[in-house]
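Lay summary. Proteins are chains of building blocks that fold into shapes, and those shapes determine what they do. In this project we predict the shape from the chain. Here is one chain we studied, written as its sequence of building blocks.
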Amino acid sequence: MGQPGPVSTRPLVKGFRDSPKPLAKEVLVDVSVCGICRTDLHLAEGDLQPHHRAVIPGHEAVGVVVGSGPGSSRFTLGDRVGVAWLGGVCGTCAYCRRGDENLCSSPVFTGWDKDGGYAQQLTVPEDFAYPIPDIFSDEQAAPLLCSGLIGYRALKRAGVPAGGRLGIYGFGSSAHLTAQLAMHQGASVFVMTRSAAGRELAQDLGAEYVGDAYKHPPVPLDSAILFAPVGDLVPVALRALNRGGTLAIAGIHLTDIPSLNYQAHLFFERQVCSVTANTRADGQELFALAAEIPLSPATIPYPFDAADTALADLAANRITGSAVLRVRE
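And here is the predicted shape, written in a compact code that computers can read:
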């Protein structure tokens, strides 16, 4: 990646590098497909500052193991694996010791701290690679590695009661997978989004109600998840919650939240929480559940040379479902 800036300035720069060398307990992966995430857009445009110069973005990478570093034994050559956003933790801080490795004091993130999947090859610590269930193609599996994982984590954080009503604000890559997870668990799903194509997809997936992002749902919600990175929707979603309801904010970046009115938005034990990355246990649970359902990701493929076009389409909300980059045809 070059200098961060609006996608119209084409901040992605194509280049050539030597093949990365796997370190101890790392594997080398030939990337076939990499999902295109809104976090990549935030990084490209500078909402998230790059952690090092010319980092290669991408953290929904699927490919095969073609090499390994010293001490690596978990995978064999030819195994198909996925590489996600969380690419390393210290293992020793208080958060890691208590099982909250997603809150690690010194984490490593794929495509931010280290080079990611917008490339033909990458390396990953073997303990942070996920075996891909056979039921999913590479293209279907890629969105699960962030959109699916964050959606699953957000669903847990939202605390939807059994048979409850879940509101989803914004209906992009993560939301359309989360809706399927929630409905599988018995929740009624209410989708609020400004995207006409998103509303159509939500209806096709079986949402109980579909409406505009700022429209009040017809009944109070037990829980809600905000996927759109729009702070103005926080009071909208809180006002739609029933007593004791929880709003989980799933994005890594959010525009400023306007002032909240205590009586209208928070009283009666309504609460708001954020979602930060995921644990590896979340990943294992998600892939098992995704294969059981099975999840049906709606994907839009882009050729490798069109990564900047894909980000521009994402920025303009022209993508319904999940965009994926075909690194190898």
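What the prediction tells us: Residues 231 and 257 are 4 Å apart (CA to CA).
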